[in-house]
Amino acid sequence: MKYLSYSYILLLIFASCTKDLDLDWPSEPPQLVLNGILHPDSAIQVALSTTIPLTPQSTDFPIIENATVSLYEDDELLGDLVFRDSVYVLDYHPKAGRQYTVQANVPGYLPLSASDIVPAKPDVAACYLAEERNTYFAFPIPIRTRIVDPLESNYYWLYSTISNYRYVPSEERYCDSLRKYLCPQFDSTTLVNTRMGLISESPIIDPFNAFTDNTSYGETTYKTGYIRFNDLSNNGGALALEVISASHFGYDELPNLTAEQALTLHIISSSTHYDRHLKSSLIDHLNNDYYDNPNPFSQSTQIYSNIENGTGIFAAYNSASIRIEQHPCE
Fold first, then answer.
1. pLDDT confidence of residue 19
2. Domain ranges across the chain
3. Where does 32-117 sit in CATH, by number?
């Protein structure tokens, strides 16, 4: 009884030692944010806004509408961007190998500037292996990839997508004897694009987002579906790796897909700026938002920026996409 009384006393003491405190966060002036990603297949767009306070009344970032935004190609002025639908636009497609510089002038702020070079389109070949693989993916598709790497520093990202008809519950057919669960069926009128999971044991892959399954499969998957690697192992040579993509189709079904259905492998060749920005953004996402219940003890990640006198990113990448179902390995 004495121990029980002590427990109640301690409970009352700790329960009574709480107090609400109002903390005055230091007030910081807003900072300009410029975001623009260049790709040869797209016209140039730049978003310009300001940061918001640490304890904001709204999470909407204020859009800057009265800026003068200019773009240069190899130090020659291409023109001023036009404000349209909340972004600044120039109807011009950037070219591989050229350097682009953006300058933004906003009344009351220091001028912003940033530069980057558009990488060459990756020279890549890929094919699928028509063979069984024992993985926890329901429909694993082994894919061989080979990149002819230019003799310069290069950073690559790889991911796969499925284009397939969406599943909808059947209104007539049940999957269990108790008639509780409706079987899914294809909605042949609606296509959905989905990024798929990837497995690989290649030693050239950056393991920053790797997860190793310690069950009998012992596989390494990559969170968010992205694989990152560079050319340090064979700069100027051939980079080869094998990945296993999750799929909605068995390998024996790939030759019989409709024209709309596809398993596509995407290869990104990124500039140094875009590579650092993308990696730091994914690390921040994995630390804070990737799980349903984020880790309360995780630390924020400094997301990479190359904007002078502001924050954000102005960077470039190039890419190639291969419809894998059209390329069986010989």
1. 65
2. 32-117, 123-303+317-326
3. 2.60.40
What pLDDT, on a 0 to 100 scale, did the predictor assign at position 319? Answer: 98
Percent of the chain with pLDDT over 70: 80
Can you give the three-state secondary structure of the chain, one letter per residue?
CHHHHHHHHHHHHHHHCCCCCCCCCCCCCCCEEEEEEECCCCCEEEEEEECCCCCCCCCCCCECCCCEEEEEECCEEEEECEEECCEEEECCCCCCCCEEEEEEECCCCCCEEEEEECCCCCEEEEEECCCCCCCCCCCCEEEEEEEECCCCCCEEEEEEEEEEEEEEEEEEEECCCCCCCEEEEEEEEEEEEEECCEECCCCCECHHHEEECCCCCCCEEEHHHCEEEECCCCCCCEEEEEEEECCCCCCCCHHHCCCCCEEEEEEEEECHHHHHHHHHHHHHHHHHCCCCCCCCCCCCCCCCCCCECCEEEEEEEEEEEEEHHHCECC
Average pLDDT over residues 53-68: 80
233-253 pLDDT tens trace: 888 899 999 999 999 888 999
